[in-house]
């Protein structure tokens, strides 16, 4: 044997197993950062938002529903959910269940030749799955049996989220094959959570009558802190969708914030015009609808389109929540605590339709970097380029996606609720509804006098207008109790 073959290789030629040739350290670092930003939207973002936007007696329960879902989804995700959503195909709308904790698998390059390992992708996709369940919880606050929620979370993740996710986001999914555009989850996350939350709210039943009539936030400033985490965390939500630290990432993040600001201001102006007061809760609702609407389109539309989308996401969900909700029988019957039907189902559908209209073919080409970009074109550009048929086809695929997600979530969510209630009641007992956190968890959020809501005995209440403000909250755009 030649002696030279026994000599160690120079350091610059030794293979680095921790940084293989296919991995881009910048892309990997950004993807992990984006995932953590999305995780912060849930914990502590939505934990704080839910815990502060409800009555004081529901603060612990509402926050804990979000915290539990985050933890439960993670174990289900690495146990079987990820491979059902992105793994080897079983049928055109589902992958084969399999565990995702094998060291060899975790360190391999992830799908579509993205430049980071499976471990990064699993973490990134987990925080999306988790926030979907937490958004569903928003429709059920203030009355769902916590034990029923513990069963609902893994069942819904397994039999609803994975089906929709695989169909739309996995390259082998049937809607993905048709060319549906859902940049970062307008369909997979927001339309799904809005429809599932509304459906589950129907089966669980309403809050106590007293809570539906008056449901003031226990801490509006803390609510704004949670909303702020939600807004800023959306940089990772939409910025992580290209799976790279690229120019499209930068565009997606900027479009996200432009649309959100426009939507918030639009909602605020409508509240002032029709209710006479600038509602903080209303502005928060407008912020959320803007974030949701731009999500399916963030990286594939131009900046001017994001402004138009912001105006529409500030107007249309406002109209459905403040006007149609009081006229349509079904909407009045279902007690959707956080109005997720309007803020997520309506806004998500709106974004899914508008991306079919405003998608810029050049941005699609940059995003995908292949000849397939020619198959994606928004109707507005198709008309300009005399490709009307292609534009109409894209709109048709987007509408088909909406129909699929709605039918899937109404059906599966209903079946899950009916199965869960065979084991435990879906709704809390009347005495638990009256007491809230102390009856359910043996804990209370605040060590304050009274119940934290009644200030009539305070000599300062009439001076500072506490009672007048809290009584006016539902009238100036919040509509939290959906009475």
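-> sequence recovered:
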């Amino acid at each position: 044997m030649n002696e030279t073959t026994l000599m160690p290789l120079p350091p610059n030629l030794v293979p680095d197993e921790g940084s293989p040739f296919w991995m881009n350290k910048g892309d990997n670092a950004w993807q992990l950062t984006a995932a953590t930003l999305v995780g912060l939207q849930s914990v502590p973002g939505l934990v704080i938002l839910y815990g502060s936007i409800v009555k004081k007696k529901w603060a612990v329960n509402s926050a804990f529903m979000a915290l539990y879902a985050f933890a439960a989804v993670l174990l289900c995700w690495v146990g079987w959910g990820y491979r059902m959503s992105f793994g080897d195909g079983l049928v055109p709308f589902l992958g084969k269940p399999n565990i995702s904790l094998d060291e060899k698998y975790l360190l391999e390059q992830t799908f579509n030749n993205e430049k980071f390992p499976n471990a990064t992708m699993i973490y990134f996709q987990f925080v999306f799955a988790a926030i979907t369940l937490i958004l569903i919880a928003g429709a059920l606050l203030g009355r769902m049996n916590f034990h029923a929620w513990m069963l609902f979370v893994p069942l819904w993740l397994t039999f609803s989220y994975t089906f929709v996710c695989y169909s739309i986001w996995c390259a082998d999914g049937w809607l993905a094959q048709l060319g549906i555009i859902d940049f970062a989850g307008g369909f997979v996350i927001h339309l799904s959570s809005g429809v599932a939350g509304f459906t589950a709210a129907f089966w669980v039943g309403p809050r106590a009558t007293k809570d539906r009539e008056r449901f003031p936030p226990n801490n509006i400033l803390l609510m704004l802190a949670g909303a702020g985490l939600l807004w800023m965390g959306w940089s990772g939500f939409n910025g992580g969708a290209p799976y790279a630290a690229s120019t499209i990432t930068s565009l997606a993040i900027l479009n996200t914030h432009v649309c959100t600001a426009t939507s918030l201001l639009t909602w605020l102006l409508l509240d002032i015009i029709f209710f006479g007061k600038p509602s903080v809760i209303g502005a928060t609702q407008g912020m959320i609808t803007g974030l949701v609407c731009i999500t399916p389109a963030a990286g594939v539309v131009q900046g001017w389109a994001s402004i138009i989308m912001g105006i529409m996401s500030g107007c249309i969900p406002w109209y459905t929540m403040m006007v149609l909700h009081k006229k349509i029988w079904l909407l009045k019957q279902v007690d959707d605590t956080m109005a997720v039907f309007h803020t997520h189902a309506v806004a998500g559908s709106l974004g899914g339709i508008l991306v079919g209209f405003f998608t810029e073919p050049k941005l699609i080409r940059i995003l995908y970097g292949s000849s397939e970009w020619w198959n994606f074109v928004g109707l507005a550009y198709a008309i300009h380029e005399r490709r009307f048929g292609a534009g109409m086809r894209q709109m048709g695929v987007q509408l088909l996606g909406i129909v699929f997600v709605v039918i899937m979530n109404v059906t599966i969510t209903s079946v899950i609720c009916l199965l869960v209630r065979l084991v435990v009641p879906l709704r809390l007992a009347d005495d638990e509804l009256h007491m809230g956190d102390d009856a359910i968890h043996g804990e209370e959020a605040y060590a304050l006098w009274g119940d934290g809501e009644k200030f009539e005995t305070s000599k300062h209440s009439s001076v500072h207008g506490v009672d007048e403000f809290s009584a006016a909250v539902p009238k100036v755009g919040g509509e939290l109790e959906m009475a």
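The two ends are 86 Å apart (CA to CA).
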